[in-house]
Amino acid sequence: MLKVQNIIKNYEGKQVLKGISFHLKQGESFGLLGPNGAGKSTLIGIMTGLIHATSGTVTIGGIDLHKETKHAQQLIGIVPQEIALYLDMSAKENLTFWGKMYGLKGEELKSRVQEILELIGLGNRANDKVKVFSGGMKRRVNIGCAILHRPKLLIMDEPTVGIDPQSRNHILETVKTLNSEGMTIIYTSHYMEEVEYLCEKIAIMDQGSFIKVGDLSELAELVGEKREIIFTIKCEQGQKDMERVCQYINEYHPLNDFMVQENQIKLFDDNPQHLLSQLIQGVTALHVQLISAEVVEPNLENVFLYFTGKKLRD
């Protein structure tokens, strides 16, 4: 359904995408993760034909996006981060407008608009102006506009930012349904649990490159048997306490996989309980107050942190 080959994008003398390649079969769901500035939005812009790549190719349903842009774009639905609606128009009017833009008309357009209104749970609010809707309702209309023309590939860029739990759940279930019906999904989010729930395949992206690609179990296996250990200390002497603890770790338990975030130290080790016991003794001997110490089992956020050393929500 989608083939991305060696996409490079240079911008103002900087290479923001460094040879991205991947492919998706029809009906696959693909999670695209990365911190702000990783290059996700640029990659999405290139995959939708809105940004020209410096080099490389994108093929959608066998159609070269660069050579036959309009033809390929007919197969794509895009849900952008920003709400792309006319606020003084009703939900029905917005859907009708975008349906016409996709080439729908007559009874087909009318029935499709009604079908989408029911799918997004706004059949009883069809004639209300979008400006009176909650953030979650607006996002549901935004999604409705993107799927009116039954796209083969749906690209969703942070579709649940800042919305209520009910709307968020409705959106996730809608995406799950569309995917089960054969629609190929590319989903970006800062909410790891959404990607875990929706996506079969996951790419971790940073600094313009794919660091790792696989399903969650494959990514966890790459981490190996390592588990995350989190120490939270009370820095009574400010940064000095943290420096003393880090010096102790470096001197007695030299590890590459540890990082400092405010008053926390995070480590990865394949024998966490043994290391935890040793470190608790060492930190106590330094007369630094330990607030908590815990071992965290691998999940998508831990895997991301292991490979990038960054919080996704930074």
Automatic annotation (TrEMBL):
Recorded superkingdom: Bacteria
Transmembrane domains' residue ranges: none
PROSITE patterns documented for this protein: ABC_TRANSPORTER_1, ABC_TRANSPORTER_2
Single GO molecular function: ATP binding
InterPro entries: AAA+_ATPase, ABC_transporter-like_ATP-bd, ABC_transporter-like_CS, P-loop_NTPase
Acetylation among keywords: no
Keyword ATP-binding: yes
Keywords, ordered alphabetically: ATP-binding, Nucleotide-binding
Residue ranges occupied by any ABC transporter domain in the UniProt entry: 2-232
Short name of any one Pfam family annotated for the protein: ABC_tran
PANTHER family reported in the protein's UniProt record: LINEARMYCIN RESISTANCE ATP-BINDING PROTEIN LNRL
This protein's name: ABC transporter ATP-binding protein
Species assigned in the record: Bacillus altitudinis
Highest classification ranks of the organism: Bacteria, Bacillati, Bacillota, Bacilli, Bacillales
